[in-house]
Amino acid sequence: GPQGPRHLRPLLDTVLDALHTGTHARGGPLPTGGPDTVTAAVHDAAGDLLPDRGDPDALRTLVHAFAAGAADPAHPLCAAHLHCPPLAVAAAADLAASALNPSLDSWDQAPAASALETLLTRTLARETGHTDGLVTTGGTEANQLALLLARETHGTVRLVHGANAHHSLPRAAWLLGLPDPVVVPAPAGTLDPVALDDALTRLPGPRGSVLVAATAGTTDTGLIDPLPDIAARCTAHGARLHIDAAYGGALLFSDHHRAKLTGLDAAHTITLDLHKLGWQPVPAGLLTVRDAHDLAALHHRTDYLNADDDTEAGLPDLLGRSLRTTRRPDVLKLAVTLKTLGRTGLGALVDQVCAHAREFADLVHDDPRFHLHDRPAISTVLFRPAHAPDPAVAAVRRHLLTTGRAVLGRARADGRLWLKATLLNPATRPDDLRALLTLVHRTHAEGPR
C-alpha cells in the first residue's frame, strides 16, 4: 500500500545490518563445526518459534543466525554446486516482487506481472530459436513439464536418455506413469549418438512415441552432448527431442561460447535455469517450446480464476501457464537483470566464469600434486590429489566442509571419485584459485583425522 515503503525501509536496514554481522561471524564460505554445531546454533537463536509474546528483535536475531550459518555462494571458496551468487540488482527486484506479492494464477491478482511474464518468456524463447516458454521453479519442474507435454501431445511416450542425464528426467517418467526409460551409454561423459541410433532402431511405436532427452551442461562435468548429431538421429527416427540446458543454456548470451549450443534450436522443448549460470536468486527456471500449440495440454478451467465469459471479454487466462496455481512473480528479477545488463553484460559474466575454470584447470594440470580429469567445457573442473584413494578424496572434502574453509562438490567419473569445483562467481580472482588448490593439498597432506 501507500505506506508500505515507509514501513519497509527501517526493516531493510535491520536486515542489511544482520546480513553483515552474520557474514562477519561466519568468517568463511561455510560455518565451522558441521551439521550438529550449526543445528545447535540455529536452535539457540530461534528459541521458542511460537512464543506467547512476540520478540521485536526476531528479524535481526534470525537473519544474523541465517547468515552466520549459510553456505555463501558469493565467497570465492564456495564452489561445490550450480549455486550462484545472485546479482544485487536481481535480489533488489525480488524484494519488490515479495513486497507487492502478485500471484500469477489470474489477471486480477497480477496485471503488470502477467504482461511482463509474456514479454520475458517470449524474449528468452527467441534466444533458443523457440516461440514461447513457461516460467518454472527450476530445471526439475521444466524437465517434468517437457515429459508431460510430450505425453499429452503424442500419447504414452518412452523416454530415452543418456547415462549422463540429470536424475530429474527418469524421476519425472516415474511420476507421470511412463514406461521405464531406456538409458543410452555415455562412455566419454556425453550421450553416444551411435548407441542412441541403435536404441531408436530397436524401439517400436509410431513417430513421436519416443522422447529423447539430451543434455547441454551435465551436472557432474559440464559436458555438452553432441546436439546436431543427436538431433539428426531423432529426425531420422521420428523421435521428439528435449534438451536439458539448465546449466549450459546461458552460453547463448556469450559470443565466444554460443557455438557450443549449435543444434539447440532443433529441440521441441528446452530447459533453462538462470539460478545456475544466470546469477538469479532461486527460483528462476524456464521451459521453452518450439510449437506454442503444445502448451494447450496445460489448459484448465475453474470459474473463479478463468471463467469463459471473462476470457471472452479479454481477461488473460493465466492458469494454463503452469501446473501450479499460486505463482510468485519470479519474472521480475529476470526481466530487470536482462534489461540492466543486456546481452553484452550477461555474456561478459559467462565469459569470466568460463575463463576462471580454464585458469583453474591450468593450475591443476601444471601441479604434479594433482590430477586433472579434463579441460572444462563450461565452468566445472574435476580434480583430485595425485595417487589418493577414493576414501581419502571424500575425506578431504568433508574436512573442508566441517571446518568451514572451502565448499567443493564431488563427482564420479571414469570409475573414480573426484573433487568438483563449479566456478560461478565472476568476482573470483587468480589468488583465490591458487588458495583453493593450496588448501586442498594441505588438507590431504595432513592425512586422516
Automatic annotation (TrEMBL):
GO terms under biological process: carboxylic acid metabolic process
InterPro entries according to UniProt: PyrdxlP-dep_de-COase, PyrdxlP-dep_Trfase, PyrdxlP-dep_Trfase_major, PyrdxlP-dep_Trfase_small
Molecular function per GO: aromatic-L-amino-acid decarboxylase activity; pyridoxal phosphate binding
Entry protein name: Amino acid decarboxylase
Species name: Streptomyces viridosporus (strain ATCC 14672 / DSM 40746 / JCM 4963 / KCTC 9882 / NRRL B-12104 / FH 1290) (Streptomyces ghanaensis)
Cofactor needs: pyridoxal 5'-phosphate
Chain positions found as N6-(pyridoxal phosphate)lysine: 276
Cross-referenced Pfam families: Pyridoxal_deC
Classification lineage: Bacteria, Bacillati, Actinomycetota, Actinomycetes, Kitasatosporales
One CC-aspect GO term: cytoplasm
